[in-house]
């Protein structure tokens, strides 16, 4: 999300971390740690592949009309798989 002072990453609607690096998240809570652990256990590459497949099927292999809400959902899928891909490479 962009604001007057630059980009920020938000968690639960609160500005927690500056993308510019001036502030860093100090720690993850237990739910976040468990979620990331589950992602790694499942196989991040497999999840990225699945998200891309769902995106491509919805976008290229359907006759459905996509309005703003559907386009936003597909873009959110893309953001999710790109983030997971970066997590898997770190």
Any overview of this molecule?
The chain is α+β, with helices and mostly antiparallel strands and 90 residues long. It contains three helices and three strands. It is elongated and about 45 Å long. The longest helix is centred in the C-terminal third of the chain and has 22 residues, at 68-89. The protein has a domain at 42-90.
Sum this structure up briefly:
With 90 residues, this protein is of the alpha+beta class. The protein has helices at 30-42, 44-60, 68-89, and strands at residues 2-3, 6-11, 14-18.
Trace the largest sheet across and list its strands. Answer: 1-2-3
General form: elongated
Sheet with most strands: 3 strands, antiparallel
Helix content: 55-70%
Q: Which regions are unreliable across 5 or more consecutive residues at pLDDT < 50? A: 7-15
* Overall pLDDT confidence: 78
Radius of gyration: 16 Å
Total E-strand runs: 3
What is the end-to-end distance? Answer: 23 Å
Secondary-structure class? alpha+beta
Number of helices: 3
Work out the strand percent.
Answer: 5-15%
Order of helices and strands: EEEHHH
Entry keywords:
elongated, alpha+beta
Write the layout of secondary structure elements.
Elements: E1 2-3, E2 6-11, E3 14-18, H1 30-42, H2 44-60, H3 68-89
Antiparallel strand pairs: 1-2, 2-3
Helix pairs in contact: 2-3
